[in-house]
Protein backbone atom coordinates (compact mmCIF):
# COMPACT_ATOMS: atom_id res chain seq x y z
CA UNK A 1 0.00 0.00 0.00
CA UNK A 2 1.48 3.32 -1.06
CA UNK A 3 1.13 6.71 0.57
CA UNK A 4 -1.91 7.22 -1.68
CA UNK A 5 -3.96 5.27 0.83
CA UNK A 6 -2.88 7.38 3.79
CA UNK A 7 -5.22 10.27 3.00
CA UNK A 8 -7.29 10.94 6.10
CA UNK A 9 -10.93 11.84 5.77
CA UNK A 10 -11.47 15.51 6.53
CA UNK A 11 -14.19 16.72 8.81
CA UNK A 12 -14.55 20.07 7.06
CA UNK A 13 -15.37 18.31 3.79
CA UNK A 14 -17.75 15.94 5.56
CA UNK A 15 -15.74 13.02 4.18
CA UNK A 16 -16.68 9.40 4.90
CA UNK A 17 -15.05 7.03 2.43
CA UNK A 18 -16.99 4.01 1.22
CA UNK A 19 -15.00 0.78 1.52
CA UNK A 20 -17.47 -2.13 1.75
CA UNK A 21 -17.08 -4.13 -1.50
CA UNK A 22 -20.58 -5.64 -1.24
CA UNK A 23 -22.21 -2.21 -0.90
CA UNK A 24 -20.06 -0.79 -3.73
CA UNK A 25 -21.15 -3.65 -6.02
CA UNK A 26 -24.81 -3.17 -5.09
CA UNK A 27 -24.64 0.57 -5.87
CA UNK A 28 -22.93 -0.07 -9.23
CA UNK A 29 -25.64 -2.63 -10.08
CA UNK A 30 -28.36 -0.09 -9.26
CA UNK A 31 -26.70 2.53 -11.50
CA UNK A 32 -25.95 0.01 -14.28
CA UNK A 33 -23.80 2.41 -16.34
CA UNK A 34 -23.17 1.36 -19.94
CA UNK A 35 -20.75 2.12 -22.73
CA UNK A 36 -21.60 5.31 -24.59
CA UNK A 37 -23.34 6.92 -21.59
CA UNK A 38 -22.12 10.14 -19.92
CA UNK A 39 -21.72 9.80 -16.13
CA UNK A 40 -20.87 12.59 -13.68
CA UNK A 41 -19.53 11.50 -10.28
CA UNK A 42 -19.62 14.14 -7.55
CA UNK A 43 -17.11 13.67 -4.72
CA UNK A 44 -15.36 10.46 -5.84
CA UNK A 45 -13.22 10.45 -2.66
CA UNK A 46 -10.66 7.68 -3.05
CA UNK A 47 -12.44 6.23 -6.08
CA UNK A 48 -14.55 3.43 -4.53
CA UNK A 49 -17.25 3.77 -7.21
CA UNK A 50 -15.04 5.37 -9.87
CA UNK A 51 -13.31 2.14 -10.83
CA UNK A 52 -16.55 0.28 -11.53
CA UNK A 53 -18.04 3.24 -13.40
CA UNK A 54 -14.97 3.44 -15.66
CA UNK A 55 -14.97 -0.27 -16.38
CA UNK A 56 -18.55 0.05 -17.70
CA UNK A 57 -17.10 1.94 -20.66
CA UNK A 58 -19.14 5.08 -19.90
CA UNK A 59 -17.57 8.52 -20.33
CA UNK A 60 -16.88 9.65 -16.74
CA UNK A 61 -16.46 13.20 -15.48
CA UNK A 62 -15.68 13.53 -11.77
CA UNK A 63 -15.83 16.66 -9.59
CA UNK A 64 -13.62 16.66 -6.50
CA UNK A 65 -13.24 19.61 -4.12
CA UNK A 66 -10.37 18.25 -1.98
CA UNK A 67 -7.10 19.22 -3.75
CA UNK A 68 -5.21 16.52 -1.86
CA UNK A 69 -7.32 13.82 -3.49
CA UNK A 70 -6.65 15.05 -7.04
CA UNK A 71 -3.17 13.42 -7.42
CA UNK A 72 -4.50 10.21 -5.82
CA UNK A 73 -7.39 10.02 -8.29
CA UNK A 74 -5.15 10.94 -11.23
CA UNK A 75 -2.58 8.30 -10.26
CA UNK A 76 -5.32 5.67 -10.19
CA UNK A 77 -7.42 6.65 -13.19
CA UNK A 78 -5.74 9.18 -15.51
CA UNK A 79 -4.59 6.38 -17.82
CA UNK A 80 -8.26 5.67 -18.71
CA UNK A 81 -9.27 7.55 -21.86
CA UNK A 82 -12.87 7.82 -20.58
CA UNK A 83 -11.83 9.59 -17.30
CA UNK A 84 -11.85 13.37 -16.80
CA UNK A 85 -11.19 15.07 -13.47
CA UNK A 86 -12.66 18.49 -12.65
CA UNK A 87 -11.21 19.97 -9.45
CA UNK A 88 -13.68 22.34 -7.80
CA UNK A 89 -16.88 22.85 -5.87
CA UNK A 90 -19.92 20.99 -7.22
CA UNK A 91 -22.17 23.69 -5.70
CA UNK A 92 -20.62 26.26 -8.06
CA UNK A 93 -20.03 23.96 -11.02
CA UNK A 94 -21.42 25.02 -14.40
CA UNK A 95 -22.89 21.79 -15.76
CA UNK A 96 -23.13 23.32 -19.24
CA UNK A 97 -19.32 22.88 -19.39
CA UNK A 98 -19.84 19.14 -19.75
CA UNK A 99 -21.50 19.57 -23.17
CA UNK A 100 -24.04 16.91 -22.25
CA UNK A 101 -26.98 16.30 -24.56
CA UNK A 102 -30.44 16.98 -23.07
CA UNK A 103 -31.64 14.21 -20.70
CA UNK A 104 -28.35 12.33 -21.04
CA UNK A 105 -26.29 13.01 -17.93
CA UNK A 106 -26.27 10.29 -15.26
CA UNK A 107 -25.21 11.82 -11.93
CA UNK A 108 -23.72 9.72 -9.12
CA UNK A 109 -22.47 10.79 -5.71
CA UNK A 110 -21.67 9.75 -2.16
CA UNK A 111 -22.60 13.28 -1.10
CA UNK A 112 -21.20 15.00 1.99
CA UNK A 113 -24.28 15.34 4.15
CA UNK A 114 -23.63 19.00 4.95
CA UNK A 115 -24.13 20.03 1.28
CA UNK A 116 -26.62 17.42 0.06
CA UNK A 117 -29.75 19.61 0.04
CA UNK A 118 -28.26 22.70 -1.69
CA UNK A 119 -26.46 20.44 -4.16
CA UNK A 120 -29.68 18.61 -5.09
CA UNK A 121 -31.38 21.99 -5.68
CA UNK A 122 -28.41 23.12 -7.81
CA UNK A 123 -28.73 19.94 -9.90
CA UNK A 124 -32.50 20.37 -10.24
CA UNK A 125 -31.89 23.76 -11.84
CA UNK A 126 -30.07 21.74 -14.54
CA UNK A 127 -32.73 18.99 -14.68
CA UNK A 128 -33.08 19.30 -18.48
CA UNK A 129 -29.56 17.83 -18.90
CA UNK A 130 -30.06 14.95 -16.47
CA UNK A 131 -31.34 11.44 -17.17
CA UNK A 132 -31.11 10.22 -13.58
CA UNK A 133 -29.27 10.67 -10.28
CA UNK A 134 -28.11 8.06 -7.76
CA UNK A 135 -27.02 9.44 -4.40
CA UNK A 136 -25.80 8.09 -1.10
CA UNK A 137 -27.38 10.33 1.52
CA UNK A 138 -28.24 10.36 5.18
CA UNK A 139 -31.16 7.93 5.56
CA UNK A 140 -33.44 10.54 7.10
CA UNK A 141 -32.85 12.84 4.10
CA UNK A 142 -33.85 10.01 1.73
CA UNK A 143 -36.96 9.42 3.84
CA UNK A 144 -37.83 13.11 3.45
CA UNK A 145 -37.19 13.01 -0.31
CA UNK A 146 -39.46 9.97 -0.74
CA UNK A 147 -42.18 11.03 1.75
CA UNK A 148 -45.84 11.48 0.92
CA UNK A 149 -48.27 14.03 2.38
CA UNK A 150 -49.63 13.58 5.88
CA UNK A 151 -46.48 12.84 7.87
CA UNK A 152 -43.68 14.77 9.53
CA UNK A 153 -41.17 13.93 6.75
CA UNK A 154 -43.28 15.71 4.09
CA UNK A 155 -41.92 19.22 3.55
CA UNK A 156 -40.11 21.63 1.25
CA UNK A 157 -37.48 19.09 0.17
CA UNK A 158 -40.05 16.36 -0.65
CA UNK A 159 -42.30 18.72 -2.60
CA UNK A 160 -39.69 20.57 -4.65
CA UNK A 161 -37.77 17.39 -5.54
CA UNK A 162 -40.96 15.47 -6.41
CA UNK A 163 -42.10 18.42 -8.54
CA UNK A 164 -39.09 17.69 -10.80
CA UNK A 165 -38.36 13.98 -10.24
CA UNK A 166 -39.61 10.51 -9.48
CA UNK A 167 -38.00 9.43 -6.18
CA UNK A 168 -37.06 5.82 -5.32
CA UNK A 169 -35.56 4.86 -1.94
CA UNK A 170 -33.50 1.87 -3.12
CA UNK A 171 -31.74 0.49 -0.01
CA UNK A 172 -30.12 1.41 3.30
CA UNK A 173 -26.42 1.31 4.16
CA UNK A 174 -25.08 0.99 7.72
CA UNK A 175 -22.23 3.08 9.16
CA UNK A 176 -19.76 0.16 8.94
CA UNK A 177 -19.56 0.50 5.15
CA UNK A 178 -17.56 3.75 5.59
CA UNK A 179 -14.26 4.87 6.96
CA UNK A 180 -14.58 6.67 9.33
CA UNK A 181 -18.07 5.35 10.14
CA UNK A 182 -20.63 8.20 10.24
CA UNK A 183 -22.89 8.54 13.27
CA UNK A 184 -26.02 7.98 11.13
CA UNK A 185 -27.45 5.40 8.75
CA UNK A 186 -27.24 6.13 5.04
CA UNK A 187 -29.40 5.19 2.07
CA UNK A 188 -29.25 5.09 -1.72
CA UNK A 189 -31.86 7.09 -3.60
CA UNK A 190 -32.63 7.31 -7.32
CA UNK A 191 -34.04 10.59 -8.67
CA UNK A 192 -35.35 10.52 -12.25
CA UNK A 193 -36.44 13.87 -13.75
CA UNK A 194 -39.97 13.65 -15.17
CA UNK A 195 -40.11 13.73 -18.97
CA UNK A 196 -43.37 15.64 -18.55
CA UNK A 197 -44.03 17.40 -15.24
CA UNK A 198 -47.10 15.79 -13.59
CA UNK A 199 -48.17 19.09 -11.97
CA UNK A 200 -46.56 21.98 -13.88
CA UNK A 201 -46.75 25.37 -12.15
CA UNK A 202 -47.11 28.63 -14.06
CA UNK A 203 -43.96 29.78 -12.24
CA UNK A 204 -41.96 27.28 -10.20
CA UNK A 205 -40.25 30.14 -8.30
CA UNK A 206 -43.67 31.06 -6.91
CA UNK A 207 -44.21 27.41 -5.99
CA UNK A 208 -40.92 27.50 -4.04
CA UNK A 209 -42.07 30.67 -2.30
CA UNK A 210 -45.48 29.28 -1.31
CA UNK A 211 -43.93 26.04 -0.04
CA UNK A 212 -41.24 27.90 1.92
CA UNK A 213 -43.79 30.22 3.55
CA UNK A 214 -46.19 27.35 4.32
CA UNK A 215 -43.55 25.22 6.05
CA UNK A 216 -41.85 28.06 7.93
CA UNK A 217 -44.40 27.41 10.67
CA UNK A 218 -45.59 23.91 9.92
CA UNK A 219 -47.79 23.69 13.02
CA UNK A 220 -49.97 26.60 11.87
CA UNK A 221 -52.83 26.50 9.39
CA UNK A 222 -52.33 27.58 5.80
CA UNK A 223 -54.63 30.54 6.34
CA UNK A 224 -52.10 31.82 8.91
CA UNK A 225 -48.82 30.90 7.21
CA UNK A 226 -49.83 32.19 3.75
CA UNK A 227 -51.66 35.35 4.81
CA UNK A 228 -48.82 37.59 3.55
CA UNK A 229 -49.17 35.99 0.10
CA UNK A 230 -52.82 35.01 -0.35
CA UNK A 231 -56.04 36.10 1.36
CA UNK A 232 -58.21 33.29 2.76
CA UNK A 233 -60.72 33.70 -0.08
CA UNK A 234 -57.99 33.03 -2.69
CA UNK A 235 -56.79 29.94 -0.80
CA UNK A 236 -60.37 28.62 -0.94
CA UNK A 237 -60.63 29.64 -4.63
CA UNK A 238 -57.60 27.40 -5.30
CA UNK A 239 -59.65 24.48 -3.98
CA UNK A 240 -57.65 24.30 -0.75
CA UNK A 241 -59.04 24.19 2.78
CA UNK A 242 -57.28 27.04 4.62
CA UNK A 243 -57.79 25.35 8.00
CA UNK A 244 -55.39 22.53 7.05
CA UNK A 245 -51.74 22.40 8.05
CA UNK A 246 -49.15 22.39 5.23
CA UNK A 247 -48.14 18.75 5.71
CA UNK A 248 -51.72 17.70 4.84
CA UNK A 249 -51.50 19.10 1.29
CA UNK A 250 -50.21 17.18 -1.73
CA UNK A 251 -48.02 18.59 -4.50
CA UNK A 252 -50.99 19.32 -6.80
CA UNK A 253 -52.61 21.51 -4.10
CA UNK A 254 -49.40 23.52 -3.61
CA UNK A 255 -49.20 24.05 -7.39
CA UNK A 256 -52.81 25.34 -7.39
CA UNK A 257 -51.88 27.81 -4.61
CA UNK A 258 -48.79 28.97 -6.54
CA UNK A 259 -50.86 29.44 -9.70
CA UNK A 260 -53.39 31.45 -7.70
CA UNK A 261 -50.51 33.62 -6.44
CA UNK A 262 -49.36 34.09 -10.07
CA UNK A 263 -52.78 35.64 -10.82
CA UNK A 264 -52.50 38.22 -8.01
CA UNK A 265 -51.49 41.83 -8.70
CA UNK A 266 -47.84 42.10 -7.63
CA UNK A 267 -48.56 44.71 -4.96
CA UNK A 268 -50.91 42.47 -2.98
CA UNK A 269 -48.34 39.67 -2.89
CA UNK A 270 -45.64 41.99 -1.57
CA UNK A 271 -47.62 44.13 0.89
CA UNK A 272 -50.40 43.04 3.22
CA UNK A 273 -48.08 41.96 6.08
Automatic annotation (TrEMBL):
Instruction: Give this protein's Gene Ontology molecular function annotations.
Output: 16S rRNA (adenine(1518)-N(6)/adenine(1519)-N(6))-dimethyltransferase activity; RNA binding
Residues involved in S-adenosyl-L-methionine binding = 16, 18, 43, 64, 89, 110
**Span of domain Ribosomal RNA adenine methylase transferase N-terminal:** 23-195
* Primary location: cytoplasm
Top EC class, one word:
transferase
Q: Where in the cell is it found?
A: Cytoplasm
Q: What is its EC number?
A: 2.1.1.182
> SMART domains given for it?
rADc
Reaction catalyzed: adenosine(1518)/adenosine(1519) in 16S rRNA + 4 S-adenosyl-L-methionine = N(6)-dimethyladenosine(1518)/N(6)-dimethyladenosine(1519) in 16S rRNA + 4 S-adenosyl-L-homocysteine + 4 H(+)
Its cellular-component GO annotations read: cytosol
- Write the record's keywords in alphabetical order, separated by commas: Cytoplasm, Methyltransferase, RNA-binding, rRNA processing, S-adenosyl-L-methionine, Transferase
UniProt cross-references to Pfam families, sorted A to Z: RrnaAD
Read off the HAMAP family from this record. 16SrRNA_methyltr_A
Q: Which family does it belong to?
A: Belongs to the class I-like SAM-binding methyltransferase superfamily. rRNA adenine N(6)-methyltransferase family. RsmA subfamily.
Q: What does the record give as the function of this protein?
A: Specifically dimethylates two adjacent adenosines (A1518 and A1519) in the loop of a conserved hairpin near the 3'-end of 16S rRNA in the 30S particle. May play a critical role in biogenesis of 30S subunits.
What's the name of the protein?
Answer: Ribosomal RNA small subunit methyltransferase A
